[in-house]
Amino acid sequence: MPTPRPAHSRDESVETIQRELTAFARRARATAARVHPELSLVSFTLLAHLQEQQGCRATDLAAHYMLDKSTVSRQVAALEKLGYVERRPDPDDQRVHVLHPTAAGHQALEAAHTRRRTLLKERLADWPEEDLARFADYLVRYTEAWGTTPLRGQAGASGMCSSAQSASASIAGPSAAPASVSR
Known about the structure:
The protein has 183 residues and is mainly α. The chain contains 6 helices and 2 strands; from the N terminus they run H-H-H-H-E-E-H-H.
């Protein structure tokens, strides 16, 4: 059972949340490097999005995650080099290529998801069921406060990401400028 915390002002609470989310992001990045060392956190996120959306154009990935096109290009090149992503012509416009995870990409994602779930279950093993449910609800509420949830986004036309669904993948929120992020 967590130790009861003294009452804080709204500003103190926001400051604590910001500090803890920053620490969480750092730990998540470090854990991601251990769980799937061949993939940066950005590459893993893009690969997972491609799987969820059943294909996506690189430009739509950049818009969706508010990343520079050059960042997405580098990450996609790394995924292609690993054999995790392939380019296929768009059936509606042969000039455009849609990125899709390969069988190896699907396997890498499943293995990483399994390892991540195991780590989370271990870390939260002593949490009461109601605390887990409350924490999950708060995380969903926080994410939805930005207006979109990248992990729940819907595919646009031709199964591609919709740039209208742009959302920041960072904790900083929608005011964050597009970033060049790599490991």
